[in-house]
Amino acid sequence: MDDGVQAEVTIWRKELKIKDFAKGRKLRIETVSPAFIKWTKDDWKTVNEVDTEDMCLGIHYTDLPTESMEEGQLKFTIYWKESEKWDGKNYEVNIV
């Protein structure tokens, strides 16, 4: 049943790697342990950094402030606090 309600966030997880999400929504990155997210909207000319928060459900998350961003590509990488290691990979998501 379609009640006309639209989600305000789009969720990205390592096991659910979305490629695109709708302009006007926040991008929520969920992880299974505490992490630090480094992200950019302009191919690493400007770098933003944010820590995840504990949901107390075995999930940590952060909402990137993407709701006012124009269409284009957003890139991010993950630093795992407990193991003190970077993921070693950049992830890309398109705002469409």
Write down the overall geometry: globular
- Helix/strand/pairing category: mainly beta
Poorly predicted runs are none
Q: How far do the termini sit from each other?
A: 25 Å
- Helicity level: under 10%
Evaluate the radius of gyration.
14 Å
What does this 3D model show about the protein?
This protein is 0% helix and 47% strand. It has strands spanning 9-12, 20-21, 26-31, 35-40, 48-51, 53-54, 60-64, 72-80, 85-86, 91-95. Strands 2, 4, 5, 8, 9 and 10 form a 6-stranded mixed beta sheet that branches. Strands 1-3-7-6 form a 4-stranded mixed beta sheet, with no helix packed on it. The mean pLDDT is 93.
Secondary-structure blueprint of this entry?
Blueprint lengths: L8 E4 L7 E2 L4 E6 L3 E6 L7 E4 L1 E2 L5 E5 L7 E9 L4 E2 L4 E5 L1
Parallel strand pairs: 1-3, 2-10
Antiparallel strand pairs: 3-7, 4-5, 4-8, 6-7, 8-9, 8-10
What does this entry show, briefly?
With 96 residues, the chain is mainly β. It has strands at residues 9-12, 20-21, 26-31, 35-40, 48-51, 53-54, 60-64, 72-80, 85-86, 91-95. The protein contains no helices and 10 strands.
Task: Label this structure with key terms.
4-stranded mixed sheet; 10 strands; 96 residues; 0% helix; 6-stranded mixed sheet; mainly beta
